[in-house]
Specification:
mainly alpha, 0% strand, rod-shaped
């Protein structure tokens, strides 16, 4: 799991504590950098999806507003026609 500098214990060599600390620090920094990069990529992916969903929600709200206006116009027109029919029926007797 760890790539340590110098000879390994299997080959009979040993590490100084400074070498070991440096190697562990470098690996820790590399892992931290990798996590940071992945976190930034994940954040950007989530942000992009949120932006798309926000645009779609705005589009749907605009479409709903237009549909509501159209339905109000149609209902008003129908109400006028029913009122006219009612007046014709009343005048006929």
């Amino acid at each position: 799991m760890f790539d340590l500098p110098g000879p390994t214990n299997n080959s009979g060599g040993s590490f100084t504590s400074l070498q070991l600390a440096q190697a562990l620090t470098e690996q820790s920094q590399a892992l931290s950098y990798g996590r940071t990069v992945r976190s930034k990529q994940l954040y950007q992916d989530i942000k992009n999806k949120l932006d798309i969903y926000t645009m779609e929600a705005s589009k749907f709200q605009a479409e709903r507003a237009m549909a509501n206006q159209e339905s109000q116009r149609v209902m008003s027109s129908l109400a006028g026609k029913f009122s006219l029919i009612s007046k014709i029926q009343q005048s006929m007797g």
